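Suppose a colleague, Dr. K., hands you the sequence of a protein chain of 326 amino acids and asks what its three-dimensional shape might be. Before reaching for any lab equipment, you can write down a predicted structure in token form. Begin with the sequence itself:
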Amino acid sequence: MISLYCFREPLSPLFSQTLIDMAGLRGAVLAIAVGTSLFCSWTLGAAVVAEDSGLNMLKCTITSRCQLFDNKTQEKWNCQNIWNTFYASIPAVSDDVCDLPSNQYSEYIRQTQQAIPKDKTLLWSGRDVLGTMIKNYTESCHVINLEYTFTGCLLDDLKWCNQAGELEKCDDCKVFSKSSVGAFWNQASLEFAGEASGLVSILLSGKRKGGAFIETSILATVELPTLRTSHVTKVQILLLDKTETEQCGKGTVKTLQEKLKEYGFEENCEDNVNEIYGRLCEERRREGDIPGFYHCSSANLERATFFGTFLVMLYTYINNFCNQKI
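The predicted structure, expressed as tokens, is then:
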């Protein structure tokens, strides 16, 4: 367990002695420092180390999100163990961070995986265009995309590289799928698509540069080949932002339709925005909420990320203050 010390002594005896001896500003500072350290240990399962703010931020954010899940569902996740597993999955300093094996994050994914209900799988492609639409559609239409599972929610929009927190080493990776972050999303996408059953929906945007369906995307290279015809009964394409060249039966959307048929799937395509948000979402809303997923909303993610960021800033400030001679 990683622990934060303002001083070189264990926290418990120091805390007791501080309560007895504290006086004036010096005592107040000591009490705040020790109290905050204890609060972090109690709230997050382990406090953070102030020397490496990058990994601190990552740990506090992941653990905060984990606690949010723990408080809102019947599942009881061991957030400290999950962080330890994820940290052990991050490449060591000596590893080639641009050439990671496909099973790099197997243990983390196994430990955090959730069963996806039938007919609820949502695949998508084009975050640069869809943006928050992915989360809005997931929440309003009661479907599940990878970022809404426990596995994906903990790491959504986060960046990491190696166990030393050297993010710049991953910036030069030429193949994203082999980088530290890319290897995770590739493997998580593979597992997610492999568990899909019943109706599978694919959300795309006709305004995406290069076309709604990119044949080098994770959707095309990882998820579609992994869908199982024995489990998936139908694939539904939902196209937002229809254009003259990108619509059902035209452009790259037509390419996707043809590829699905080649894989042996029955498919249908919807490119009317009102139809997508009206009839389709209303049908799914009547089915009710899906326990264990919807607390991973965009608003809750922002709160958890803010909480983690705030704690790191606070601990770093207190640690630096306590290391000065008072």
